[in-house]
Structure formats: structure tokens, C-alpha cells
Amino acid sequence: MIALVSQFSLALATVLALFGAVAGFAAVRGVYNHAPAVPLLKSIQRNVLLVSGLVGTAFIGLIYSFVISDFSVRNVAENSNLTLPVFYKVAASWGSHEGSFLLWVLMFAGWTQAVAWAKFEVSACFKVRVLATLQLVLVGFLLYLLVASNPFEFLYPTPIDGRDLNPLLQDIGMIIHPPLLYMGYVGFAVTFAFAVAGLLEGRFDMTWARWSRPWTNVAWAFLTMGIALGSWWAYRELGWGGWWFWDPVENASLMPWLAGTALIHSLAVSEKRGALRSWTLLLALTTFALSLLGTFLVRSGVLTSVHAFATDPERGVFILALLFIVVGSSYILYALKTGEVGQGGNFKATGRESLLLSNNVLMSAALVAVMLGTLYPLVVEVIGGRKMSVGQPYFEAMFAPILLPAVLLMALGPDSRWRETRLAQYVKPGVVAMGVALLVLVGAALFNGYFSLLWAIGVVCAVFMAVATLAHAAVATRKAGAAAPESGLLYRMRRLSLSYWGMVLAHLGVAVFVVGVSWVKTFETETDAVLKPGETSEIGPWRVTFIGVDSVQRQNHVAALGVFELTRGDGTLIHLLEPEKRRYQSSEQIMTEAAIHSDWFSDVYVGLGDAVQSSTNAGAWGVRLYYKPLINLIWWGCALMALGGLVTVFDRRYRPKKAGVAA
């Protein structure tokens, strides 16, 4: 009964979303006898509320079906069972192809709802166009759910128990990572809708850019958190000791992130100077197009990946058709209307606009490199019929030389001026920051007793950026209190905009991230050992002593629980590490659960292998040890970047001056 109600809710939501889209576009063009715009907007808002409520009802119905183990629903029977813990039953509702796409649609409806009721200073007609665009795209997603990926398909005869959720997904990362990632993916649809509405009106002004920026920043922040949590989850769960594998599905999330990063900086130029208009519109369309491309790659069955949701190519045809319709029509509209928009104002080669444009060029180059490495093997397979892969060496060789110069540009950006900047203005902060960076490099090299060129470049770029950013923040804070010399630090900091502090946090996050990546790629170590109880292996500055293995029965699996003592070189006991080898009873799958000890400076990572079947090594087990110095800076850097993106949204200039929306 719940499944029937949920399915009907999705069908009704599709009809209402289609009505809202058609009515919105038709009414704006005057089909309804030039009805006043504000009443029209209120009608569209109520329609959006109904659609969101119906999609939410369907999603709650799916969660309820999982929680009560309603195996008459095929989705539940294939992705849950009676022994699955209840919090994983909730997460299993988006652990399948069908459920994950329903979560995507729920996020899309939620973003549409937020746009409908948010107050920002654009005309009512413009806002109606934005909402109509979002509802029209939503219709495509809803049709896909109903026609090709129904999460409420019935199963007869009803089984007594289900197959179980994929053991890889039985992790806290599954509860948090997909919602955050989808919030980022779908959030870029708002900027896409703003771009389409602007093209339909044939104008692009600073108001458009101003009110597009907070939506873009929030989407980018969520996507940053989603990617970072996915990386952290893979690091903990897959047992490979790595945090990024250049997997095609990982790349599918990185591509819209790179485009979104370029879009954020391009929007800054468009808002402040009215320049780069056509380029900014193209980026807005492309960022969401890449989100849809990622959806196609993950759900079409064209990729083999631990992240992929589907192996049914027929579903991919529907998504590919939707991708071509949405992206193709928007690009055609861009080609027809971009001449009316124009490029905007001119600027000098030494101005801040040029630095931001250079940032866009580098981000776009990185995007092309990732896209080529991800899609080229697919093209070769389709055309030539042979499989090939592009691996980590290609991506690392292409990515670092492109993005490290972008880090230097970000460091110089705050010291630049709009229109034109005298080169002398870059000299003092640049020399000081570079001097500090070189001193840090020399100290780090002496401390570690090692030097490599790529590590040195990464450290210098990161420290240069951090010092330049903090120095500029200190100067700006001091100047902010010039009118009140006796004022405190907090007062002076509050005088600066939240957009500025968001930029500072995001840039510091990039610097912290680069330091973490440079350190762990250079100084990480790995050891494979066969240990008997009481034997010790050394990894980095640590000693790991094998105590033994116990058998543990849990709700839905049996675990071989290894016990290891982690001690420093002087013998001081620091921590007990307990990696596991799990056998899930329903699926008989074997999974490795690593044990990780983290402190401020490093991770020690222990993975339990197989028992050694040998008379000479009775009780011995295979063990894999990793030492990861400063790897946690990668997660902290991403957290700072995301926080910076969220902080900018609360800037006072994004608060509407009027209570209503202009007609």
C-alpha cells in the first residue's frame, strides 16, 4: 500500500511539474492576457511546494519500506535483509540505482523549493522563468524514475528475506556522502536555470551575477564536502590505503567541481565589473552539464567501478537522451542569444580581472585533461571495440603542472585591483611570502632529510599562498579599524565582508590541502608482513606488535578481529588497533575493515589479510601497514574550502533590501 501511494505521488508530481513549467513559460510570454507577474509567481510557488511535498512523500515511503523490510518491493528485496541494522536500512534507501536517483530528484525538488521562496532582488518574470526551467528539467528526471528506474517496482512472489546491502556500503560514509554529493550536483541546476532565464530575456547584468553567486557558492561547498567525504570513505573502507584513485566515477565528480570553481571566480568578475558575461553564462551551463554527464557515467553501465550504481545500458540510453535534450537545447539557446548579452567591459592585463580569467583558463585546462583521460577510453572501446585504461601516472603528470600555477595566482589575487594593478603592488607581499615559503622548505628538507622537486614546488606554492593570504587579511583588518583606532580585533574583522572572509578560508583550505597532498605523496610508506602473535613490524616512527585474532559474531556478519599494539620507538604504548576481516552471512562476501590511528601529524593504517596456512607459521596472519604523514591535512583543507563557500552566503549584500520581489 505504501509503495502504491509513493508511486502515485511521483506520477502526480510529474504532471504538476510539467504543468508548472509550461504554464510558467507560457504566462511570461503573455499567453494569459498579460496577467500581473506577482500573482503568477505566487501560483508557481504553490505549485513548486506541491511537487516538493509529493516527491518527499515518495521518498519517505521508500525509507519506510526499507525499515519495515517490505520485500514485496523489488528494490528492498535486492538491497536489504532482516538482519541489516536499522540505520543501514535507512541508508539502503539510496544505496541502489533506483533509490539513489530518487534521492537526486528529492534534492532537485528541494533546491527548486528554496529558489521559489527565497527573497532576492530580481523581477518576478525572471524568477518565474528560473522556476519554470527547474521544473522542466525535473520532469525529465521524474519520467526517468517512472519509466526506466522505478524504485517501487513490485516483486512476486514475495521472498522471505532479502539479498542484503552491498557490504561496501555498510558504512557511516554511505549515510553522509551521497546526500552531500547530490546537493552539490543538483545545486548547480539553480545557476543553470539562472543562465537560461537570462538568455531568454536577452540580458545579463550585475544583478544576475550578484544573485547567482550565493547559489553557486552553496552548491560548490556541498560538492566539496561530498567529494572529500567520498575520498575519506574510500580511504577507510576499501583497504588500499589510498585517498584518491582517479577512478572514472571519482573523476565524474571532479569535473563539475573544477567547472564550478572557475564559475565562482568568473561570477566575481561579472558582478564587480560586468565583464566576461558570455563566458560566465557558458560556464553556468557547462557546470550543470558536467553534473548530468557524471550521472550518465555512474548510472549507465558504461563504467566498471566500485562507485557505479548500474550495469544496465538501457537505462543509460534514457539518461543520455535526457543529457542531450537538456544540454543541447541550452547550448543552442546560448548560441542564439549570446550576441545580445555581449562580453561586457574591458580590462587591463595587470588587473584583477586578468588574474581571475587566468584562473579560469587553468581550471578549464585541468578540466579538459581530466575529461580526456576519463572519456577517451570509452570512445576507443565504442569505436575500436578494445578496452584501454588511462591511469594515475597520466592524471598526476597533467594535473599538478596545471593547478600549481593556479595556486600562485590565488595567492596574488587579493593584492590586485580591479581594472589595473601596478606591478609594484605585487612585489612586497610576493617577496615576503616567497621568502617565508623558501625558509619553510629548507627547514622541512633538513628535518626530513629528503628533497624532491615536485614536493618542493608543492610546499613552496602552498606556503606562499597561505602567507600571502594571511598577510593580506592582517592588513585589511588593520585598515578596517582606521576610523576607530581603539577598536578591538573582533570589531575590525566584522567590518570586512563575509565574502572576504569566505575567500580567505577557501584559499587557506587550498594551501592546507596542497601541503597534505605533497607530504603524503612524498613520505608515505607501505609494508607487507607475515606476523605471528608477539612479533613486531616497524612502519615510519612506529612499531606495530601483533597480539592475536579473535572471532566476533555481530548482527549480520562474523568478524576475525585482529589486535595490534601501536607503540613509539621508545616502547610507549599509544593505542590498540583492531582491524577486521568480515564475512557477511547473507551474501557470503568477505570484506576487510582497516584500523587507523590518527593524530595531528600522521595516520598509521593496519589492514588484516588472510591467515597463513603453514605448519612453520602457525597462528600467523598477513598484515599490510601504511604510514601516512600529514594525510589529515587533506580532509581539513577540504573542510576549510567548504566552510569558506558557505560563509560567503551570509554576506550582507545578499540580503534583499525590500521585503517583496519586484514586479
How is this structure best described in words?
With 663 residues, the chain is of the alpha+beta class. It folds into four domains: 1-170, no CATH class; 186-343 and 353-364 and 387-399, no CATH class; 422-523 and 636-640; 525-630, no CATH class. It is 62% helix and 11% strand. It has 18 helices and ten strands. The chain has helices at residues 2-28, 37-67, 74-79, 86-92, 97-117, 124-147, 172-201, 206-237, 248-273, 277-299, 313-341, 352-384, 392-412, 424-448, 453-480, 489-495, 498-523, 632-648; strands at residues 525-531, 536-539, 542-553, 557-568, 573-577, 580-584, 590-593, 595-598, 602-611, 621-629. Strands 2, 3, 4, 5, 6 and 7 form a six-stranded antiparallel beta sheet that branches. The protein starts with a helix and ends in a 15-residue tail after the last helix.
Q: Characterize the biggest β-sheet.
A: 6 strands, antiparallel
Summarize the amount of helix as a percent range: 55-70%
Low-confidence stretches: 305-310, 659-663
What is the subunit arrangement here?
Answer: single chain
The outline comes out as globular
- What structural category do the secondary elements indicate? alpha+beta
Mean pLDDT: 87
- Total beta strand runs: 10
Q: What's the structural domain tally?
A: 4
User: Number of helical runs?
Assistant: 18
Computed over alpha carbons, the radius of gyration is: 27 Å
